[in-house]
Write a structure and sequence with these properties.
This protein is mainly β. Helix content is 3%, strand content 27%. The strands form three sheets. It has a six-stranded antiparallel β-sheet. β7 and β8 form a beta hairpin. It is elongated and about 90 Å long. The protein starts with a strand and ends in a 20-residue tail after the last strand. The mean pLDDT is 84.
């Protein structure tokens, strides 16, 4: 109802006033990518054995925690309870994605995702499917507390003849 100053009232018809709530969305709060570093020299499997000159252990594995991701994304009003106010996931792909410029033993690397695991593989026959005998190069797996990058085989590196960035690949 609406009542004026001297007490006269009128009832508004149903639907005369509508409420609209505009949903907010998560926002990335940083523009710098999170870097996961893995070392080929820690590989020790049937596909590759590295020269572990620094004596590190399991440096072919790197973890990106959800807590770290929480620090670079502002969830907004739709946040969930702490310590993980949001959920994180991977997009499923119906076909392999070519990782442009990424080769392993001279073979183009492609990646597929089932929504939980990204598997990058050396696509020897070029058909976009990881067939028997085609090597897994790395996996990126969603776990309970974050994502785990596991390097399984070597990645070819362009030579920079000892200049900064030599033997480093950014994917």
């Amino acid at each position: 109802t609406v009542t004026d100053y001297d007490g006269d009232t009128v009832a508004l018809a149903a639907g005369s006033v509508q409420m609209q709530v505009v949903d907010d969305i998560p926002l990335a709060t940083v523009t710098t990518a999170q870097t996961l570093t893995v070392e080929e020299d820690d590989l020790n499997n049937s596909q590759s054995v590295g020269n572990n000159e620094d004596g590190s252990s399991n440096a072919h594995i790197a973890v990106l925690s959800f807590a770290t991701l929480n620090g670079i994304v502002n969830i907004g009003a739709d946040e969930g309870p702490s310590p993980t106010p949001a959920s994180y996931g991977l997009i499923s792909t119906s076909s392999a994605v070519t990782l442009t410029g990424v080769l392993s033993q001279g073979v183009q690397v492609k990646a597929v995702s089932d929504g939980t695991t990204v598997t990058a593989f050396a696509d020897t026959n070029g058909n976009g499917t990881q067939d028997a005998g085609e090597r897994t190069v790395f996996t990126f797996v969603k776990g309970a507390t974050g994502f785990t990058l596991t390097l399984v085989d070597q990645i070819d590196h362009p030579t920079l003849n000892g200049l900064p960035g030599d033997n480093t690949e950014n994917l």
